[in-house]
Amino acid sequence: MAEVIALIDYGAGNLHSVHNALKAAGAEVTVTADPYVVRAADRIVLPGVGSFKACAQGLNAIPHMIEAMTERVHVGGAPFLGICVGMQLLADRGLEHGVTPGLGWVPGEVRLIEPTDLAIKVPHMGWNDVAVLPHAKDHPVIEEGEAYFLHSYHFAARDWHDVAAMTDHGEGLVAAVAKGNVLGVQFHPEKSQAYGLATLRRFLEWYP
Predict the structure, then answer these.
(1) Is 84 considered catalytic here?
(2) The domain that contains 137 carries what CATH number?
(3) Catalytic: 151?
(4) Which entry of 19, 84, 109, 169 is annotated as an active-site residue?
(5) For residue 208, which of 75, 153, 180, 201 sits 20 to 30 Å off, Cα-Cα?
(6) Can 55 be counted among the known catalytic residues?
(7) What are the angstrom distances between the C-alpha of 170 and each of 123, 124, 127, 134, 151?
(8) pLDDT tens digits for range 70-109
(9) Sign of CA dihedral 20, 21, 22, 25
C-alpha cells in the first residue's frame, strides 16, 4: 500500500509547485488542511513562502492542525520536511514584522539577513552551494550540491548540531536543519531541478 504524504495546505504560495515536484519524485501526495488526515499520514511536508508572520498566522488559523502535526511527528515518528518558510517555522520565533512564535521544534530564531558587505544583496536569490557539515555527512537526505534560494530572513539555530548544511551569501547562512525525524531546507527543492528532485526522493525513502 502506498504511503500517504500529507502536503499541508494553509495558503502557502508554493503549494502547487511543491505538489508537482513531489509527484515528479514519485510520491502519491494528499494536499490537505484536515488535521485528521495529518494524524494518519506516513510523511508530512510543510511548504511556505512570504513572511514568517503571515505563514504562522495561516497555520494557526487551521483548527487543531499544529496539534495534529506535533502528535504525528513527535509521538508517531513520521518523517517531516519543512521547505523555505516551512523550515523557518520550526524555530522558536521569527523577527519579521514583530516577534511571532514558531513551532519550537528546532531551537533558534529567524532573523533578517544583514551582510556587512553592501555589495551583497538581500534577498538572497538564485543558485548557491549547499555545503553539508561534518557532523551531518551521513544524513540520508541532505547531500552536497547546488540549489535555488529565495529569502531575506535566515534561521539562526541555537544548537550547531541541529544545522545539517550551510550556504554562503556574504556570511554563512543555514541551508538545512535536521533534528531526529524533522528536516528543514531553506532552499526550494521544487525549483532546484535535478538536485531538488533527488533531495525529495531521498526524503521519500528516509526512515529515521
Answers:
(1) yes
(2) 3.40.50.880
(3) no
(4) 84
(5) 153
(6) no
(7) 12, 10, 14, 21, 14
(8) 999 999 999 999 999 999 999 999 999 899 999 999 999 9
(9) positive
